[in-house]
Each structure stands twice: as C-alpha cells, then as structure tokens.
Amino acid sequence: MANRQLPKWSELKPLMRPKPIQLNATDRRLADALTIEDLRSAARRRTPRSVFDYTDGAAEAEISLSRARHLFRNLELRPSILHDVSGVDTTTTMLGKPAALPFSFAPTGFTRMMHHEGERAVARVAERRGIPYALSTMGTTSIEDVAKAAPDARKWFQLYVWKDRSAGEDLMARAKAAGYEALQLTVDVPVAGARLRDARNGFAIPPALTVKTVLDAATHPAWWMNLLTTEPLTFASLSEWHGTVGELLDKLFDPTMTIADLEWLRASWDGPLVIKGIQTVEDAVRVAKAGADAIVLSNHGGRQLDRAPVPLRLLPDVVEAVDGDAEVWVDTGIMSGADIVAALALGADATMVGRAYLYGLMAGGERGVDRAAEILTREVRRTMALLGVTNVDELGPQHVRLP
C-alpha cells in the first residue's frame, strides 16, 4: 500500500497557477473559443435566432451544406514524416499578388445585421492579416466607406447583375474609383434559393418590430441596443427594402444573363475578373476560356440549389480540365484550417471563407473576426507542419485522400 501524507504548502505552491481574471466579457468569450465551431456556439447565444439562422442556414433541407461539411470531416490527411518544419510559410498568390494566407474573406450580404461594426470590421481585419476581402453588392456599408476604413487592404467588389444594367455599371465605376482591385461576379443566383429558416422566422431586412422580435429582444438586449442606436441598417447599393431576402433577389437580379454578357462586363471593368458559383467541370472550362482570371467552385454555401455538387469533390477534375487557364478557388463547408489545407492539397490555388468569420463577427465584432482569422491561421500552420510541408506549393494529392 502507498504511504500517504498531507502535502506541504511548499509542495502545493508551484501547482497554484490560477487563470488570470478577464473582466471584459467579449475578451473572455473569445479567449475561450478555440475553434470556429466554438465561435459558432458563441454567435448563437449572442444574436437573435432569425439573424443567426440567416447566417447559419442553407436552402431547403440544407443537404448541400451538410454534404460539403461531411466531406471535409471525413477526408483523410496523409502526413510525411522526418522533414524540417521549423519554419512554415503560409504565403500564396491570389490574382497574381501575394496573400499572407491561402484564404480570403468571401462576400456576405447584410453584414451589419450580424454585428453593428459590419463590413468595416471585416475589412480592417483583412488589412491587418494581409488577405483580400470581397465586399458584397448586398453589403450594408458603402463601397467608399469600406475603402476609407481599410485603405491598404486588398479589396474586391462582388457584383450581382441586376435587371437594371445601368445600376451595375454605376457600382463598377464606384468600385474602380475607390481603388478596388478586382471584380467578383456571382453567377449562381438567377433566382433566390428556398431558405426555409428565413421563411419560418419571418426574417426581413431590416428586422421588423413584431411581438416575436420584441420578445427576442429581452434575451438579446445588447444586439438590439446596437441596432437601434447606431446608423440605420440599410443597403449600401440600393435605397431600401421591406421584404424577405428571397423576394429582394427575385426582384432585382437578372435571370436572363448568359456567358455572352461577360463582354458587357468587360466593357465596364478592365481589372481582374473572378467568376463565383461554378458547379460543373464544363462550366469551369467555359468560363476560363471566356477570360476569367479566377473561378470559384461554390454552391453559394448551400444557400441556392439543394443537393448541388460539393465543390471540394469537383476540385481535382476542374483543376485538370482548366489546366492553368484561370486560378481555381473553392468555398462552401470550410470550418477549419485543416479544411483549407486539404483543399490546397487537392489543387486549389486558394480558398474563400464566409460563415467562419461571420461567426466571429457575431461573437465579438472586429475582435471576433480577428479571432476567427487567428484560429484558421494557427490551424493552417499546424496542419502543414504535421503533414511535413513548409510552404503551400509543397502540398499535393499525396497529402489527402477523399472518402
């Protein structure tokens, strides 16, 4: 039997290392978030249900989003051992220019609804982190105000083609005048997808004061106080709207657009052109041959056509078919730095993240976005080192196996 004795204070003292008390609730909440999923949980607690569901949800039965995340979770990473990985370089190029990390912040609509700091916060984090940020046509901060908030960031402008083509031409001219580097045309929204969470929540822009929302305000007072005491929540690219998001998309966006209309686009925009929303190998080849500088394999985060192809699954075939005619990026379902590394190993030139940083924004404003970027950066570096690679160019299909 072991001989027992009471420990002496001199023996206990070295073990007494209390965690520093963090008085600021936001800092405490973000420090406790070790993963993007942790930020998602914090975002759910911090925002009204309709706002969280708008960000978190997808179309119909949400099968497209579920399949994308399932594929990332179930792929196999294959490390190579006994390599010097004391220095890991995450730098890559996007549109021929350096990016400090192999991902950019994707365009998201109505960002000030998630947190009153909105697009300005995201752009400032992108500037500090050395990655690009794409401002959405459906953003809630103007093209010019985002440019002022982050003058040295690599800023792209995401365009939906409206039935009123002159409105699109005006937006492109404003983006060019404000110093935006590239245009990102989203092509997977000829009509709005059926986002059932929004319909069931009665979600509208701006949120309406109904009995349901007033009751919700009692459990999310900080969010409502910020909404009601900061500048009104309006669209940066149109005057106002008092319906659902789906109704807005169906009213404004042009379902007649074809690939021939890229000539009209090029007449108004002479900078780099990114086409986002590619979901087949054939369309990837068509768009690359039509002059896109980069294509984004994307099913809109699962928010348009349910049961759409999983972008990551398409990636190797698209890379082979495009054969260097355009950069190939991928989004949808990315929730970790390991997901980003896996996409690069399968041939992506870069990735785009949307929900990941929005969860951070909802959890803690600009500091939350920065925490999301910090988490992803740490995970990318660690995954690369554990795979035995020191730079992005060393990643290849030998490092990943799809189920």
From TrEMBL:
InterPro entries: Aldolase_TIM, Alpha-hydoxy_acid_DH_FMN, FMN-dep_DH, FMN_HAD, FMN_hydac_DH_AS
Residues binding FMN, per UniProt: 107-109, 136, 158, 186, 276, 298, 354-355
Residues given in the record as glyoxylate binding sites: 54, 160, 195, 300, 303
A Pfam entry, by short name: FMN_dh
Active-site residues, Swiss-Prot/TrEMBL: 300
Gene3D superfamilies: Aldolase class I (3.20.20.70)
Boundaries of every FMN hydroxy acid dehydrogenase domain copy: 28-403
Protein family per UniProt: Belongs to the FMN-dependent alpha-hydroxy acid dehydrogenase family.
PANTHER family for this protein: 2-HYDROXYACID OXIDASE 1, S -2-HYDROXY-ACID OXIDASE-RELATED
Protein name: Alpha-hydroxy-acid oxidizing enzyme
